[in-house]
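Format notes (please read before filing issues)

Several people have asked whether sequences and structure tokens are stored in separate files. They are not. Every record keeps both together, in the order shown below: the sequence lines, then the token lines. Line labels are part of the format and must not be stripped during preprocessing.
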Amino acid sequence: MSTKTPTLDEVRQWPATVAVATAAKALGVSSTQLYGLIRGNEAPVRVLQLGRGSKRVVTASLVRVLEGGAP
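Then the structure lines:
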């Protein structure tokens, strides 16, 4: 994956869910910061818990946040 921040149009083309690190890049924060927000139930995006430790961010939620709306 590229190190540049993806555009909103690029994010809209992503699969239904993405890794936390990928979502963090789109939000312009570190994955550590986003994981901290997730742990504190303060993430600005919808997160799915898959199994014991795997988390995925819902892309539609990420798009809404990037557009300036609620997750």
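For reference, the curators noted about this record: Helices lie at 8-12, 20-27, 31-39, 59-66. The two ends are 24 Å apart (CA to CA).
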